[in-house]
Structures are given as structure tokens and as C-alpha cells.
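Hey L., structure's done. Input below.
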Amino acid sequence: MRGLKQIETDEEREGREPEPGSRVAELYTRHVPQTIGLAYLLTGNRAEAEDLVHEAFVRVIGRLRHLRVPDAFDAYLRRAVVNLHTSRMRRRRVERAYIERELTRPAPSSTMPDVGQSEELWRSLLLLPPRQRAAIVLHYYEDLSERETADIMRCSPAAVKSLIARAMETLRSEIRGDER
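Output:
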């Protein structure tokens, strides 16, 4: 950032009117170093503090025209740093809670049931009428909702429910051997 400070110093020495970008350079060199100290005390990490201050600086500079008291840039910058830090901490807390919930959750079964291994189920499934079989396969094997199954089969969700109910009843009776 020495280059930005050098530009300002050269303009001042030559008595020229500062360039439009030099106001930003001046604000940066005047306020960022102290604000990095504040951010370091908040975060405890130098790199994270610098990232936090740079993000806050960009946000405040983007709103520079709309600041009520432009001379209080340092106060706006500090407030932005604190707000960004609070938001990051909140987001991390939510992420940690999610990770903890996921870690305590039982692992989903990694082995899918192999329909081909159960000859009896396979034979029973093949005995179903084509629409009932399609409803069962789409809903249970493809894991589609009744609405999605209905859209694919071009029927109403109520018709899908009926097809699945009749197919399940047929499969249960076939597997139990009720109709043999």
C-alpha cells in the first residue's frame, strides 16, 4: 500500500488537485492500518483480520456518497468491520450446529436392496399390470413423489395413489402366498 501513499504525497508536493481515486487512497492509508488492529482483536487471526477490513472498506467506499457524515469514515469503517465479524460468527455458529446435527445423525444405509437377489419379489413385480408396475418403480425405486410420478405417467396424483395401493396389495398377497 506504499504505492497508494506515494501517489498522494507526490500530488501534495506538486500542489496539484488530487485525482478522484486519490481520495480513496487517502482514506485507505489513513484508516485501514488502525482498523486491522481492531479486526485482529476481534478475530485473533492476522489474515482473517485483513480480509475482514478489506471487505468492510470496499463496502463503505461503495456507499461513500450516501454517508450522512462523510468525515466520520473511520466510524463507518469500524461499524462495518464489527457487523461483518458478527455476521461471520453467526454463519459459523449455524454451520457448526449443522455439522454437529449431521454427525450425530445415523448414517444412511449405504447398501441399496438388490431387487435382482429376491427372485420372489421380482417374479411378483413382473406379474403386476404395466401401469401398477410403473407406478411402483417410479415411486419407490426412482424415489419420485406422487406428483412427479403422476406427471410422468400423465395421470392425477390420486390415480397414482390408487395404482400404488392396488400394486402393494397384490405384492403382499403374492409374497405371503395368499392366492396360491
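The radius of gyration is 33 Å. The helical segments are 2-14, 20-43, 46-62, 73-104, 119-127, 130-141, 146-153, 157-176.

-- N.
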